[in-house]
């Protein structure tokens, strides 16, 4: 038996394996309660950052191929030279396009609205009651067609040509004669006759030495108005036969004849119209004959391009 004092003073030791705490630094973790390593600092450095060869963990600067290309002075000079060449080429193309196709002038001929189109169609069908045929000017520049019914436009001739081709296809279809080739031949022949008209008038104006402000686009516009009457004649021919065709086409032929005479005389006979009195002379008689010939050719072309479409 042991004395009571020794039993009370000496603690009892528990046998078994003793547990030893492992320092935090041995685990490689900053926080003992953190389950995963914090990699946000590495991501914030960017994916392009690389470890240095020394293994110290400092990222080395790595430039991308684009940055290296832009940093090269030779490449910068090449880019500047290429940009200047592209700008010069664009300017050259714009000048050549404007020389052969005056885009800025074409915008003027399409500056129309619904009111102008209605008035112009009425003038084409009933030109007998119209009195003032002068084109209005503003600071030596003709006003837009939507402000002056006497100004030429390209909207009505273009739409009338397309409609004429469609109506011709309809007429051929009602007669069981429709074919894409025949419709294409109809459109190409109408366009070819229009081109020949313009070239013949330009040659005649050159031979007669007429000083006029009549341009090629004006001629295309004035000569294209006849398609409106041609459409009316074909439609009446489809509805009422030959009688309706000849009645409506005859009226439209007389209307376009009067319209062309009163319009072109202010363009071709500008000097006589400005003075208000007829100027005698062989040259002015040639101008008058030329005006009459252009006006008289319109009914002939209207009949030639439509008579075979109505049976």
TrEMBL record:
The answer, when asked if Oxidoreductase is one of the entry's keywords, is: no
Its transmembrane ranges are 154-173, 185-207, 219-239, 245-265, 286-305
* GO-annotated cellular components: COPII-coated ER to Golgi transport vesicle; endoplasmic reticulum membrane; endoplasmic reticulum-Golgi intermediate compartment; Golgi membrane
Its annotated compartments are: Endoplasmic reticulum membrane; Golgi apparatus membrane
Locations of Polar residues compositional bias?
37-47
Any one GO biological process: endoplasmic reticulum to Golgi vesicle-mediated transport
Q: Does the keyword Transport apply?
A: yes
Q: Where is this region: Disordered?
A: 1-57
Output compositional bias ranges, type Basic residues.
12-23
> What broad class describes the main subcellular location of this protein?
endoplasmic reticulum
One Pfam family of this chain: YIF1
Give the membrane topology. Answer: Multi-pass membrane protein
List UniProt keywords, sorted A-Z: Endoplasmic reticulum, Golgi apparatus, Membrane, Protein transport, Transmembrane, Transmembrane helix, Transport
Superkingdom of this entry's organism?
Answer: Eukaryota
**Function summary:** Has a role in transport between endoplasmic reticulum and Golgi.
Q: Which family does it belong to?
A: Belongs to the YIF1 family.
Q: What is this protein called?
A: Protein YIF1
